[in-house]
Amino acid sequence: MRGRGWEGVVAGLWLALAWASPANAATAQTLVNRGNERGAPPCQSCHGADGRGQAAAGFPRLAGLDAGYLRRQLDDYAKGTRSNAVMQPIAQALSPDERDGVAMYYARLPVPVKAKVTKPADGPGADARGATLATRGRWSAQVPACEQCHGPGGVGVGANFPPLAGQPAAYIEAQLKAWQQGTRRNDPLGLMQHLSRALSAQDIAAVAQWFAAQSPVGRSVRK
Amino acid sequence: MTARLIALLLAPLVLAACSGRTPLDAHAADAPRAAAPAAKAPATTSFTPPAESTIPAGPYGDMVRLGREIFLHTRKAAPAYVGNGLNCVNCHLDAGRLADSAPLWGAYGMYPQYRKKNHHVNSYGERLQGCFMYSMNGKAPPLDDPVIVALETYSYWMAQGAPLGTKLEGAGYPSVPRPAKAPDYARGQSVFGRDCALCHGAQGQGQKVAGTYVFPPLWGPDSFNWGAGMHELDKAAAFIKANMPLSRGGMLSDQDAWDVAMFMDAHERPQDPRYHGDLAATRKAYHDTPMSLYGTRVNGRLLGARPAQ
């Protein structure tokens, strides 16, 4: 069922049709639960069937992320503009149709409400540094507040500015370092590669912790 | 005595004439001035605003903090006076602290000042009222309204230690030299698509989260009106060149900055509140400058004739 007939149709139309297609939903469900015959493991083994991710291991939440963003990440993993030893072979083992399917599968899942959101301690130190970078930036080094693009509390904005709120600190930290080192270079206008170079390791750790403690469904923790 | 009075009256005029740009000129829809090339700009004094951590406790510090809050979240904190989706900080980055982004510390000490925009000496408070009428497409808060008092207090705090009546380095937006080719809509459109639409949207409509703009709309009903300084090409080009895209200020060529400013300012926006039924008369009275496209025809559209609402 999945398949060939759809190829050649413009991508947008394909997306719209696939949304309503049980055949493709089943395919995505199969990928999430069992992977595919070309070596892609089940997505859920790291990201969870509910797309919650695994904070302790640094596996990011995918549930509720923008479908276009997710699809582009899979393409970029496959191409290598987002370099990752685990995700690159997985993305390469997914056909374009399968990438669309899983991207939409996770985009449609509800954003999981965290049982407990740990609020960073107030006062000076790492948390104040993270809060300041997140909400005000460091303009002396041309670093805008993260919130200026990623939205209040880092809830994410559109297809290009993914949510940071509630993502594992280890994940956010790894991404900032990847931008810095150029192992991730799929950012529009080079925005992240450019500004991440102005951040120290302490800045990165602090801001990652701040966003990890924010509610993914909107602002409930504020400095 | 008389001579001294005349000298006092003339001082702001002289200062304004020496200045290549007007402080807070995001909003200053003045009549055209001779653009002062950066190389010939008068010597300036540098200034660094105080750290926010030094805002004192107590009622004065509370007023400074209120001013900062209004500056950052204008629509939310001063809803009675804001008629669009913008906040002060959209055009004055880093809570009004950033050099070359019309910082408050560069403006505060330049008032009272004579302004061609309204042909009289304006207090700083009146200057702030202008921001609300034009850039915020709203209403002027009374001069003794807490909104004005708080913004004045915030500015005063930020400018502490800066010399009065002296043009400071980083005040206003740095003028961008006129480009080789006249600003062009089609070229501007392609710059916009390449470097601006990512954040401001393909239609310049901005992007919202939960009903609140994260990226401001550049034209249309929720943007600044035809009376705002940013509708003038030189001011828009200056802001854009120095500050856009966020974190990549200075990235665009001079030509790109002028072209995309022209593209932005060739779209409809809310009417100039001084309009009283005659577009040509309004242009002649307030916008008689090649820097304003108001009342002119671009791509077959007479700008200002069908303002966004």
Q: Cα distance, first to last residue of chain B? A: 52 Å
Number of helices of chain A: 11
Distance between the termini of chain A: 52 Å
Q: Enter the CATH topology name of the largest domain in chain A.
A: Cytochrome Bc1 Complex, Chain D, domain 2
Pfam families (chain A): Cytochrom_C (PF00034), Cytochrome_CBB3 (PF13442)
Organism (chain A): Frateuria terrea
Protein name (chain A): Cytochrome c553
GO molecular function (chain A): electron transfer activity; heme binding; iron ion binding
How would you characterize the overall build of this protein?
- Chain A: Heme c 2 binds at residues 146, 149-150, 192.
- Chain A: Residues 23-110, 125-215 form the Cytochrome c domain.
- Chain A: One of its GO terms (molecular function) is iron ion binding.
- The complex is a heterodimer of chains A (223) and B (309).
- Chain A is an all-alpha fold.
- Chain A is built from eleven helices and no strands.
- Chain A has helices at 11-20, 22-34, 44-47, 67-79, 87-92, 96-108, 126-135, 147-150, 169-181, 191-196, 201-212.
- Chain A is globular.
- The model of chain A is unreliable at 1-23 (pLDDT under 50).
- With 309 residues, chain B is mainly α.
- Helices cover 37% and strands 6% of the residues of chain B.
- In chain B, strands 1-2 form a two-stranded antiparallel sheet. A two-stranded antiparallel ribbon of chain B has the order 3-4. Chain B has a two-stranded antiparallel sheet with strand order 5-6.
- In chain B, strand 5 and strand 6 (301-302) form a beta hairpin.
- In chain B, helix 9 crosses helix 10 (254-265).
- Chain B is globular and about 55 Å long.
- The relative contact order of chain B is 0.15.
- Classes of the chains: A mainly alpha (223), B mainly alpha (309).
- The A-B interface holds A 136-137, 139, 142-144, 147-149, 151-152, 155-158, 160, 188-191, 194-195, 218 and B 93-95, 97-98, 195, 198-199, 207, 209-210, 212, 214-215, 245-249.
